[in-house]
TrEMBL record:
<dbReference type="GO" id="GO:0070929">
    <property type="term" value="P:trans-translation"/>
</dbReference>
<dbReference type="InterPro" id="IPR023620">
    <property type="entry name" value="SmpB"/>
</dbReference>
<comment type="similarity">
    <text>Belongs to the SmpB family.</text>
</comment>
<dbReference type="Pfam" id="PF01668">
    <property type="entry name" value="SmpB"/>
</dbReference>
<dbReference type="InterPro" id="IPR020081">
    <property type="entry name" value="SsrA-bd_prot_CS"/>
</dbReference>
<keyword id="KW-0963">Cytoplasm</keyword>
<keyword id="KW-0694">RNA-binding</keyword>
<dbReference type="GO" id="GO:0003723">
    <property type="term" value="F:RNA binding"/>
</dbReference>
<dbReference type="GO" id="GO:0005829">
    <property type="term" value="C:cytosol"/>
</dbReference>
<feature type="region of interest" description="Disordered">
    <location>
        <begin position="131"/>
        <end position="158"/>
    </location>
</feature>
<protein>
    <recommendedName>
        <fullName>SsrA-binding protein</fullName>
    </recommendedName>
</protein>
<dbReference type="InterPro" id="IPR000037">
    <property type="entry name" value="SsrA-bd_prot"/>
</dbReference>
<comment type="function">
    <text>Required for rescue of stalled ribosomes mediated by trans-translation. Binds to transfer-messenger RNA (tmRNA), required for stable association of tmRNA with ribosomes. tmRNA and SmpB together mimic tRNA shape, replacing the anticodon stem-loop with SmpB. tmRNA is encoded by the ssrA gene; the 2 termini fold to resemble tRNA(Ala) and it encodes a 'tag peptide', a short internal open reading frame. During trans-translation Ala-aminoacylated tmRNA acts like a tRNA, entering the A-site of stalled ribosomes, displacing the stalled mRNA.</text>
</comment>
<dbReference type="GO" id="GO:0070930">
    <property type="term" value="P:trans-translation-dependent protein tagging"/>
</dbReference>
<feature type="compositionally biased region" description="Basic and acidic residues">
    <location>
        <begin position="133"/>
        <end position="147"/>
    </location>
</feature>
Amino acid sequence: MVKERGRKVIAQNRKARHDWAVLDTYEAGIALTGTEVKSLRQGKAQLVDGFATVDDGEVWLRNVHIPEYTEGTWTNHEPRRSRKLLLHKHEIIRLVGKIKESGLSLIPMSLYFSDGRAKVELALARGKKAHDKRQDLAKRDAQREMQRAIGRARKGMR
């Protein structure tokens, strides 16, 4: 049996960086059933509305959609069930402190296989306001324009 190596991305939450200001990221394992793993191996999952909560010292991934396995039988899983995340106790304690003190949220950024094991990248994030999003767009446009000007200057153009 050949073991997988590297990182195979299944799903990414591309809109998350637009809607949230990411302060820190964590990697967590996920407790899954067999049909969930098979569905993920087919490359199907959606993180758009997902979030994580801490309940009684355990971290739970909520509202992440992993569709039912097409070849599954009556043992198939529920697509939007809550899934337990596997983190070290000291990481959970640190997360609880940060979430409670400053109103931050845990957002799933990507779902992937790392050496054959399903992992999720969680971001400790603060929600952005509309004016923050506009400032980010303006900053990105200015940066792009500066890079173009530098490129034109290197080529001898004006």
